[in-house]
Design a protein that fits this description.
Elements (H helix, E strand, L loop, with lengths): L13 E4 L4 E3 H5 L3 E6 L6 H12 L1 H6 L2 E7 L3 H10 L5 E4 L4 H6 L2 E6 L2 E6 L3 E4 L5 E5 L7 H9 L3
Parallel strand pairs: 3-4, 4-5
Antiparallel strand pairs: 1-2, 1-5, 3-8, 6-7, 8-9
Length: about 160
């Protein structure tokens, strides 16, 4: 796995959101910084905790000039269900062929309950308005992901 590092140019992308609409990183960057967070699977306990933490701090992130894009390999219909069930207030994007996950370097070998498989690693990227990766978040727990991001943005 060759994950993008801070300073690298973020891959440009346009993916379908939970409504089937195209969302592009370039459009989002015109409004400010973007937190692109990759998560393994919608509607699972860890991903739900992580998404709800971001949901609950969305306004605080927005005040700091940051919007949120969640990316998984789930199909659009599952993302819509996830968004509705948990009242998520940001775009969830479908990367079913994991081309964008591969471009960011977040696909790779994982181990769970003794099984080895390929999947998405839970890694987030803060993308600056110039399109470069400002910060990589790869050391957090699902329940405190939003706090780690906020603390970084506030310089703590």
């Amino acid at each position: 796995m060759n994950t993008l590092k801070a300073g690298a140019v973020a891959p440009s992308f346009t993916l379908k959101n939970q409504y089937g609409d195209d969302v592009s990183l370039q459009d989002k960057l015109q409004q400010g910084k973007v937190l692109v967070y990759f998560y393994p699977k919608a509607l699972t306990p860890g991903c739900t905790v992580q998404a709800c933490g971001l949901r609950d701090t969305k306004s605080e992130l927005a005040e700091l000039g940051v919007s949120i894009l969640g990316i998984s390999t789930d199909p659009v219909a599952k993302l819509h269900k996830f968004m509705e069930k948990h009242q998520l207030n940001f775009d969830l994007l479908s990367d079913e062929n994991h081309a964008i996950a591969d471009a960011f370097g977040v696909c790779g070998e994982k181990k769970f309950m003794g099984k080895v498989y390929d999947g998405l690693h839970r890694i987030s990227f803060l993308i600056a308005q110039n399109g470069n990766v400002e910060k990589v978040f790869d050391n957090f727990k699902t329940k405190d992901h939003h706090e780690v991001v906020l603390n970084y943005l506030k310089g703590q």
